[in-house]
Amino acid sequence: MGTPVKVSIRNLFKIFGEHPKAVLADVRAGMGKAELLAQKNHVLGLNDINIDIREGEITVIMGLSGSGKSTLIRHLNRLIEPTAGEVLLDGENILTWNETRLRELRRKSMSMVFQKFALLPHRTVLENAGMAQATQGTPRSLYEPEAQSWLERVGLAGFGDRYPHQLSGGMQQRVGIARALTSNAGIMLMDEAFSALDPLIRTDMQNLLIELQSELHKTIVFITHDLDEALKLADHLVILKDGVVVQQGEPQHILLNPSDPYIEAFIGDINRARVLRVRSIMAEGTAEGDVAGDVDADATLENVIALSGGDATLRYRVTCGGHSVGILEMPALVRALVPRRSA
Predict the structure, then answer these.
(1) For helices 169-182 and 140-153, angle between their N-to-C axes, nearest 10 degrees
(2) 3-state secondary structure string, 258-307?
(3) Phi and psi dihedrals of 131, rounded to 5?
(4) How far apart are CA 103 and CA 324, in angstroms?
């Protein structure tokens, strides 16, 4: 039985302009972004988006600037209204909800972490972390211990009495994450949450998110334009171009099976040895004959290359949880390092 779908986006369109409904038929008939702007003076933001966001997983939506990724995430809590389509939460279309239900959605079900932190400068770090519960009417005496606990988990123990301007950018983003966690929302929306951070701090925040997710199993929608970040975080990866989903799926599968030249170009410069996992290229079955040793199914190809000393004739038993799950032949590893190209 697969992981249940938490949020389902169905046939979603977003057109910006004076009369979006009037030009919707043109888009459905095949008019693209450039044509729509030139002929109809409307901007095509999203074009027939269909995505299933599974419970307890990190779904990463990525693309270059103008691809529609930030527009898409704002449809999930209806900060932006679609031109057409459905957004289903646990099977119920939130586009039919009134303002009262939407407020409850934003306060209790979906938290949001922004690129620019969005902290209130006149409130302390602790007050910012507990803001979601405070707006729900929860007394400070009840939310403060939980907010303090999450601040400690994100590495900000002892900073509760300080103000945002007294913190570095990375520390401010940790407050934003603590605030989202204190809200107890099952869904976290993260819009370019780490993009404003220095590279080392950004890596630290990615590792923190992975650590927290391994324990909490939140449903996370993460927006980024950085492929390395996407491949590191994603359980399910969605790649957008000009408001269209070009390809989506498990990141390892996309790396090994790009669907068109755009995806090939997009992933062309990635360090495949550092990103690809043994489980993606192994052959299932039990090893017969001599093996050079055991490798974990989730080890990177870079790990195996180092282990082998560069010997391309070796074969390894692949294990997961102490059990044999397959065989890795070094020639298969070498082939996987060469990007696939269209004919």
Answers:
(1) 130
(2) CCCHHHHHHHCCCCHHHHCEHHHHCEECCCCCCCCCEEECCCEHHHHHHH
(3) -60, -40
(4) 50
- Residues present in the chain in total: 343
Q: Which residue has the tokens 């909800």?
A: 97
Q: How far is CA 215 from the centre of its chain?
A: 17
How many CB atoms neighbour CB 28 within 10 A?
A: 13
SS3 248: strand
42 within 8 A of 17, measured Cβ to Cβ: yes
Name the maximum alpha-carbon separation found in the chain.
Answer: 70
State CA 331 to chain mean position distance. 32
Q: How many CA atoms lie within 13 A of 5 on its CB side?
A: 13
Q: Which residue has the tokens 């999930």?
A: 76
Residue 287 confidence (pLDDT) above 70: no
The span from the CA of 252 to the CA of 155, in Å, is: 31
Contact 233, 62 (CB under 8 A): no
- Dist. CA 43–CA 20, nearest whole Å: 9
Strands (E), 162-205: 187-191
Report the alpha-carbon distance of residue 174 to residue 153 in Å, rounded.
10
Instruction: Report helix, strand or coil for 59.
Output: strand
Residue 195, helix vs strand vs coil: coil
First to last CA, the chain: 37
CB distance 61 to 73 below 8 Å: yes
Give the count of alpha carbons within 13 A of 157, CB side only. 4
pLDDT-based confidence at 155, cuts 50/70/90?
Answer: confident
The pTM is what? 0.88
In terms of Cα–Cα distance, which of 289, 288, 287, 290 is closest to 319? 287
pLDDT tens-digit profile of 180-194? 888 888 999 999 888
Q: Quick one: 303 exposed, middle or buried, by C-beta within 10 A (0-12, 13-18, 19+)?
A: middle
Whole-number Å distance between alpha carbons of 29 and 15:
14
